[in-house]
Amino acid sequence: MTFEHTNHMTQLNLIPQPPSFCQYANGPCDQSFESTKNTQAFFFYSSQQELISNTLEEVVRKLRKANPDFLVGSWRDLAVQGRMIFCEICKAQRFTGVAVADVTSLNFNVMFEIGYALGLGVPVIPIRDTSFSPDHREFQELGLLDTFGFVDFVGSDELAEKLSGTIQNTEFPFSKTVKRNLETPIFIVKAPLGTDGQTKLMSVIKKSGLRFRTFDAKETSRLSIQDAYREVMSSTGVITHLLADVRRGSLVHNARCALIAGLALASGQQVLMLQEGKEPRPIDYRDVIQSYSDPNQVQGILTPFIADLWGAIQSKRFVPITLPLKALEKLDLGDVAAENEINALKSYFFPTSQYNEARRGHARLLVGRKGTGKTAVFYGIRNAFWTSQDHLVLDLKPEGHQFTKLREAVLEPLSRGMQEHVLSAFWTYLLLMEIANRIIVNDQRFSSRNSARSELYQEIKELYSADPTVEEGDFSERLLTLVQRISERAELASLTASSQLTSLIYERDINVLSRKLAEYLRNKEGVWVLVDNLDKGWPVNGTEPQDILILRSLLEATRKLQRTFSKDKVTFHTVVFIRNDIYEHLLVNTSDKGKDTAVLLEWNDREALCEIVRRRLIVSLEKDASFEELWSAFFAPHVSGQESFSYILSRTLMRPRDLLRYLRACINVAVNRGREKVLDIDILQAEKTYSEDQLQEVSFELHDIAPEYSEIVYLFIGSPSQFTKEELSTRMQSCGLPPSDADKVSELLLWFGFVGVLGGDGEEHYAYQYQYGVKRMLKGFSNNPTLIIHPAYRSALGCTEN
């Protein structure tokens, strides 16, 4: 083994000063750092894999023997007897040059330690034994460490040889000058499941008045380490919601939370690790975790945290950076999820023709696949009328899981006709109560200016307050409470007549409430009801008839309210935002298909996507220019002989979210490499990370339909990019799928755009170019057409070109 001998210790960026705030101490650090030993490298690994831990201890021994002056430590060296383990780890990381972390298996303590090192600004070298693969799939799903360059090894000799040079040449991968986000100072890592605890958490945060950003795995499958670092470092407070171990997806989600919490604790953020259930937690951070067994305990946990966070936000002041940022480092294309940039979206929102149609009240349904910008249009319409006292806007975001209890306890025992009656009454009551709630909240100051209006306002307030079960919390919480109340009543009642069903829902005669609301709303120019996320969690082609009935009943209820209010000359608009596949199911299950006008949100126009990017660049750079001028200033003109923007666009599914995700990955790679401009090799490198994210996302979407299909996409690892439909069926049958299932999955892969059809002229055809009409797309080709894997997935799969 050769060893490069340098006086590396003089190059270390040690952090001898105790932090001014530590979550463990709930204030300034109370530890002494005087006796802490310096090291060039410090090893973190799990003791659970004994074979690996023994190998790593041997590596430490060999590195020390090869050069006694090269100081190497491991967590085995920590003197933890009678001391706080977290504090000893904190000291070790503050006095080392490099953290070497074993990620052969997915260990929560090691993930936390990786995050903590990065939060301190310490470079990290992830190492993995390639002969072990216990958590390979989970690491792929997690995605946080993909962009690190792993040091792969088998045996102590190989690893010691590789690390002897790597340790001394490793640099911190991120820019340490991250501007603090004062507009939305909280970052929340949401659980991938819509639990009651999470509903309570989001309700309490919304009511606190604190603005926040979220990572939601249901919207964006993976969080890159660059984005995680930027999100945490720009925050003042970080909240992670950990799932109970028995929950599906808890391993990957809780590992992500561990790394993010490590980042946040190291950088001195206010951190809340909220834990569902009482299971023992990893020793590194168990004392920070606050657990609950009843969702009603969440508010009590959050209340002191919010108070501390308010104080921290008030005391924070922007610290000027000491080094000027390069233009590329300043470039910010915004968030890929509209929910995280509600205010920023106003600056660069692109009003498409579909948006204008919906805003003018010409559409009741806005239809588009995930990632096409439905939520951006939702906020665009809301913001157009939100601040005006002349309009009343309901921006409702129910989620499919909130109706599970309603389906099981109330709907399933009933006939189809009675189900429809219950749901129509449910939506009518809920919408009337939400309109009343919005009037009470928004018009408290303005109603008193007119005596007649003030009297109506008080009457509405009294009618609304008579039902305390829907008065508390935000909309999600009120919806959940109403569903629970109806379910409890249904269990105690024998339901045989429509009047009995109605009594489950109504607390009073809603005709009085409806009449009073209509009188009050005469004073306004219009009412807007915007409903998004209703189909969140509903699987493609696996939607239950009752799910579609929930949507149909909502539309019917809004039509009834529109007719009711129109008698009092009140303009009433409804826009419901749904996915393409849900709309297809709705059409199949609706006899009168002309009642609800739909607008399809599509992005087949390259120039429209150019405009989205141009507007974001203009806001970020504070410079108005053409797309071509802005693009050429920051991106190489060509990639592999193709115009660079066209190259990137061809690897998206023509959705704004995909495009922004790829562009952000390109910028991250270029910034980490110290570039002034994104080069073609940076775009190719970013494609690897982007492609992994896309592959993981389509796997998740397939999992929603049936778990047994989620691995199908991995059958194409190393396969040719082109094959016939017959070869596709043969490939799937080889893994045990019967011919009938193979045909079904083939159609799904075509619908998702994972595969397309290759035309005789060499043009590639994908479902999104045909409004996701797979049968219509196939109609122009032979019975056994040549299929082709979409370029978005080829890099991750390692496809060979034909």
Main sheet?
5 strands, parallel
**Fraction in beta strands:** 5-15%
List the total number of helices. Answer: 30
Please tell me how large the radius of gyration is: 28 Å
Fraction of residues in H or I helices: 40-55%
Mean pLDDT: 84
Structural class: alpha/beta
List the defining traits of the structure above:
single chain; 802 residues; alpha/beta; Rossmann fold; 4 domains; five-stranded parallel sheet; disordered N terminus
Describe this structure in words.
It is a single chain. By secondary structure, the chain is of the alpha/beta class. It folds into 4 domains: 8-169, Toll/interleukin-1 receptor homology (TIR) domain (Rossmann fold), CATH 3.40.50.10140; 186-324, 3-Layer(aba) Sandwich (Rossmann fold); 353-600, no CATH class; 706-802, no CATH class. The chain is 47% helix and 11% strand. The protein contains 30 helices and 21 strands. The strands form 5 sheets. Strands 2-1-3-4-5 form a 5-stranded parallel β-sheet, sandwiched between helices. Strands 7-6-8-9-10 form a 5-stranded parallel β-sheet, with helices on both faces. The protein has a 5-stranded parallel β-sheet with strand order 12-13-14-11-15, with helices on both faces. Helix 4 links the parallel strand 4 and strand 5 (151-153).
